[in-house]
Amino acid sequence: xxxxxxxxxxxxxxxxxxxxxxxxxxxxxxxxxxxxxxxxxxxxxxxxxxxxxxxxxxxxxxxxxxxxxxxxxxxxxxxxxxxxxxxxxxxxxxxxxxxxxxxxxxxxxxxxxxxxxxxxxxxxxxxxxxxxxxxxxxxxxxxxxxxxxxxxxxxxxxxxxxxxxxxxxxxxxxxxxxxxxxxxxxxxxxxxxxxxxxxxxxxxxxxxxxxxxxxxxxxxxxxxxxxxxxxxxxxxxxxxxxxxxxxxxxxxxxxxxxxxxxxxxxxxxxxxxxxxxxxxxxxxxxxxxxxxxxxxxxxxxxxxxxxxxxxxxxxxxxxxxxxxxxxxxxxxxxxxxx
Length: 338
Prior knowledge:
Layout: E1 6-10, H1 14-25, E2 30-34, H2 38-47, E3 53-54, H3 57-60, E4 65-70, H4 77-84, E5 88-93, H5 104-110, E6 116-118, H6 126-136, E7 143-151, H7 154-157, H8 175-191, E8 194-202, E9 214-221, E10 226-233, E11 240-247, E12 250-255, E13 260-265, E14 272-273, H9 282-296, H10 306-322
Parallel strand pairs: 1-2, 1-4, 2-3, 4-5, 5-6, 7-10
Antiparallel strand pairs: 7-11, 8-9, 9-10, 11-12, 12-13, 13-14
C-alpha cells in the first residue's frame, strides 16, 4: 500500500466516518476530511488520524487528491463530484448516484478519462461473487426468477433517520433511494439490466417522516427473460436480507445478513451452505477502499461503473414514478378482461 496517497472524504456523517475508519485500516496514511460542521470535524479529528480538514468543498478543490469519496446527500453528489474531479485521480461516489438524471451528461464528460465509480458495496461481497460465478457456470441452468425479501428496524439501526437526508425524498431519502436501491443494483449486477418496472411503495410505520418505508417492486430483467420480485421495509423486527435465484435446474440463495450463500439442485432436499464469508461488515468497506486506491494507482477498475449506476438511478426514478399507476381497484372491478 502506498501510504503517501492523499485521500479526501467529503462529509463526515455515519457513512463518512465509516470510510475514514476503513481507509485508515487498509493503510491510507494521509486522509483528509471536508465537512461544514465545526463540531463534526473536531469530533472526527479526535477519533481518527486526519491529515487536514476543510469546511467547504471549494477549499478542498485547491489541493490535488489521489482518491476522493463523495458522501454528501445524493442531490449534491454530481455538483461536488464535478468540483473535485479536475484535481482528483480516482473517485468513489456514494449511492445513489444522484436524485435526477439532469446533470449526468456533464459528470460523464468530466469523468471520461478517470476511474469513477459508485459505492454499491454489495458488489464486492465474497458471497455475491461466488453466486455470480455459479450463475455464469450454469450451475442452476437458465435463470428464470429472482425474489428478495428483507429489511430492518430503522429506529434501532439508524436512530438519526429523522434528522438526516433520509427524511426528504429530494435529498435522497425514503426506502427506494436509501435501501431498495442496493437491491436494485445487486440484481442488475447478478442478472442483467432491468427492462420494465412496477412498484408500490408507502409510508407504513416510521415515526417522524412522511417518506416511504416499504417497497414492493416487480420487474423484468435480462431482455425480459428473468422475472424479479422485491419486498423491503424499514420497520420489521429482524435485520434480514434474503435473495433467491431460481433456474430451470436448481436455485441459489444469498443470506446477506449472515454473509453466506447456498445451492440446491432439483432432486435434492437440503441446501448446501457455504461458510460465513464476512466476519465484520467493515470488511466490505475495506475491500471497497482497496479497490479505489488500486484504481488511483492505475491497477484496476471500479466495481460499479457510472453507466451501471445511471441504470440503477433510472430504476429508482421509475419505481418512484410508477407507484399507484395501473392499479385495479377491486371494489369497482366487474371482472372484465381485454
